[in-house]
Design goal:
alpha+beta, C8orf32 fold, 14-stranded antiparallel beta sheet, 4-stranded antiparallel beta sheet, 24 strands
């Protein structure tokens, strides 16, 4: 009996130990596994979908966008399209930016292609991840010219701003108060940097998901709505504070940049057909007032030089508190005080050596070509002071490269040299490479020229002189560049498709003539 009792007790203990062990194994399996496994398991429920958005600057729609997810045997394809209608004479021309991303089942980036087309323009920036540490990239500025290729070593996983919401959703991180830091590749500027994404709130949105055409007006109206629970994600992946509201599957519901455009999800017919009718009816005049819609060269302007200028920046975002956090308004020759930005040669940004690798990788990571290096040797003496070298290179580009206003003007330095003509992007890109070949640190910057109360898009350069960034403008042969130029992006271009998304809701005016808006 005793033996039998011991056996039963022992058997019970064994059963209890086995049960506890299985619970521990399950807990370890669910909570201790790699995030990639968690995401890969969760994306089983990520089905093909398409969402459409009205692109609005202030209270007016200026274009439309879409985000499409397609399933593949080994992962997903994420496609993002943004189309803006840019004023041209008495009409508009459509400029379209398309981004195609190939992702693994765990939503890790495998490859990307970003193209910009419209008005004779064609640009392509592509890349692929090889192994875990090599990013192979290529760039071309014409369908008829070969791409320039180069490789960059990366440390760990690199993500794109477009993908992060999906990874947060399927990684079970859409929780208010949750903060995630990631290495983000921004395809607009080519920069890679550490960005913090914070989930700060949750709410509910009502979104039109279908529409019907009205016979009398030929306009479409909503016929059904979808109630969507969404989480608010704050980040500054494009250099400007952004608020994204995303649904439980990571799909974008609403987004707004501090000074830039808003994207509002709606039915396709409402954001496309109704917008086209309104544009045909009202014409392009409303678009002309949007900052960055028209370039300095396109408007036939020449920046004036002077000692300093101050501008008050006004915007009407829903998230108005974002404005003081716009990082790119301060630094270099720009200083801010509230909503006022002062631009002058005397204000210089001391350089953080730890950030050396995050200048302008779309330019800085591409090796300087031998033809460019040869020109640099003949155009400037590297033993001269940095300011003298920079001045000589600005003069050489302005004197040697003819200005080309065509949409398909050369942009990559080798082609600019070969053709001897380029638009502002080509002139600035060539200057940056010439400066690097002579041992100077230089970067492309872009923003707006403030003239007659409007912001005209432009691109120029900043070069390191005596420990501070000095603005120079090879397009107009100016060193220093005009103080009426306000930098809004490190990298970028003078094209509306780059500038409008980050400053389309802003207005600029001389500070001394503006009364603060209550």
């Amino acid at each position: 009996m005793k033996i039998g009792s011991i056996n039963r007790r022992t058997l019970a203990q064994i059963v209890l130990l086995a049960w506890a062990g299985s619970l521990a194994w399950l807990a370890r399996r669910e909570f201790g596994k790699d995030e990639s496994e968690t995401i890969a398991e969760a994306t089983v429920r990520l089905s093909p979908e398409a969402h459409f958005y009205a692109v609005k600057a202030g209270g007016s729609q200026i274009g439309y966008a879409s985000i499409t997810v397609d399933t593949m045997p080994t992962g997903f394809r994420l496609s993002e399209v943004m189309a803006l209608d840019v004023p041209e004479a008495d009409s508009t021309r459509r400029v379209t930016r398309r981004t195609e991303l190939v992702l693994t089942r765990s939503l890790r980036l495998r490859s990307f292609v970003r193209t910009v087309t419209g008005g004779g323009l064609f640009e392509e920036f592509a890349g692929s991840i090889e192994g875990d540490s090599l990013l192979r990239m290529s760039e071309r500025d014409s369908r008829d010219h070969a791409a320039e290729e180069w490789t960059v070593r990366i440390a760990g996983d690199v993500v794109l701003p477009e993908v992060l919401p999906y990874r947060l959703a399927f990684g079970k991180r859409l929780e208010v108060g949750r903060t995630v830091t990631a290495s983000v590749l921004d395809l607009s500027t080519g920069t890679i940097g550490r960005v913090e994404f914070a989930a700060t709130a949750e709410s509910t949105f009502v979104v039109a998901d279908s529409a019907i055409e009205q016979r009398t007006t030929r306009l479409w109206r909503p016929v059904s709505y979808d109630t969507v629970k969404a989480w608010r994600i704050e980040h500054a992946a494009i250099g400007s504070p952004v608020v994204n509201w995303v649904d439980q599957n990571g799909g974008l519901v609403f987004t707004e940049a501090a000074l830039g455009v808003r994207l509002e999800r709606s039915a396709f017919e409402l954001v496309s057909f109704n917008y086209r009718v309104a544009l045909d009816r009202n014409g392009p005049d409303g678009h002309r007032t949007v900052p960055g819609m028209t370039s300095v060269v396109g408007a036939g302007l020449r920046p004036d030089t002077g000692r300093a200028a101050s501008f008050r920046i006004e915007s009407a975002p829903v998230e108005r508190f974002l404005l003081p956090r716009v990082a790119w308004l301060a630094g270099g020759r720009q200083a801010t005080a509230g909503e006022v930005v002062r631009v002058g040669e005397s204000s210089r940004e001391r350089v953080d050596s730890g950030k050396t690798g995050f200048l302008d990788p779309s330019e800085a990571l591409r090796p300087v070509g031998p033809a460019v290096a040869a020109v640099a040797r003949s155009a400037a003496d590297s033993s001269a002071p940095a300011a003298t070298v920079a001045r000589a290179l600005v003069d050489w580009v302005h004197r040697s490269i003819r200005r080309d206003t065509a949409g398909g003007a050369a942009r990559l330095p080798a082609r600019v040299l070969a053709e001897g003509r380029a638009g502002p992007e080509g002139m600035v890109g060539l200057f940056v490479d010439l400066a690097r070949a002579r041992g100077l640190r230089a970067r492309t910057v872009s923003g707006v020229l403030i003239a007659d109360g409007r912001g005209f898009g432009h691109v120029w350069a900043e070069v390191m002189v005596d420990g501070g960034w000095v603005a120079v403008d090879p397009t107009f042969g100016q060193m220093p560049a005009s103080p009426a130029l306000v930098r809004t992006m490190i990298g970028g271009s003078s094209r509306a498709i780059d500038l409008v998304p980050i400053l389309g809701a802003a207005s600029f005016a001389p500070a001394e003539t503006v009364t603060r808006t209550p």
